[in-house]
Amino acid sequence: MYLKRLELQGFKSFADRTVFEFSPGVSAIVGPNGSGKSNVVDAVRWVLGEQSAKTLRGGKMEDVIFSGSHGRKPVGMAKVTLVLDNSDGGLPLDYQEVAVSRTLYRSGESRYEINRQETRLRDVHELFMDTGLGKDGFSIIGQGKIDDILSLQADERRGLIEEAAGISKYKYRKREAERRLQSTEGDIDRLEDIFYELD
Ligand code: ATP
């Protein structure tokens, strides 16, 4: 699995539709200070479901939408599409290519799509869980991240190792199953109360 293409439109400094094509191996993005290199990485984080505006170096989520520049009006929506080559079946979907998109309008309305099918943020998280590519995965090492990792608490460091080892998916499913079990036990308690009253 590798990142094949990244399409940005209205995202941060990328007012016009901009397409990055990547090949297997190392790619480098170079440019003068402030030209938008980090915005490209922010776009990858964002499309993978990042919910923190601060992590994306903004104050509120709307800040990811192009806010205008000299002679250029602000735009009304940001859209990012990330296309992965899935010919090795690294993602559990029966497609050679997997495209994930996120769109945000100034009204606050937002949408996620996987291969052009509207989907939930949760499905995007589950798709990338344990692949290392999720928004909390270790494949994006931002500026200062190494220092952060070195100063992590023991349990946080363990979380990082669990994601790398591919077991966080199972821990997540266990938590979900426990939550459902708890809610079912609550239902059973209520039913028993009703039976008791009817007796
Ligand atoms: P450096 O090399 O200094 O780290 P960089 O190439 O990584 O810089 P970025 O931080 O990606 O640059 O881009 C910063 C630029 O993006 C700034 O000029 C900023 O005005 C612009 N920018 C950020 N958000 C928006 C937005 N919503 N609308 C328009 N421009 C934006």
UniProtKB/TrEMBL annotation:
Question: Coiled coil located at which positions?
Answer: 167-194
Subcellular localization, as worded in the UniProt entry: Cytoplasm
Q: Looking at the record's lineage, which domain of life comes first?
A: Bacteria
Residue positions annotated to bind ATP are 32-39
Its UniProt domain note says: Contains large globular domains required for ATP hydrolysis at each terminus and a third globular domain forming a flexible hinge near the middle of the molecule. These domains are separated by coiled-coil structures.
Per the record, the similarity remark reads: Belongs to the SMC family.
Partners and quaternary state? Homodimer.
> In UniProt terms, what function does this protein have?
Required for chromosome condensation and partitioning.
Q: What is this protein called?
A: Chromosome partition protein Smc
Native organism is Peptococcus simiae
Residues represented out of the complete protein: 1 to 199 of 1182
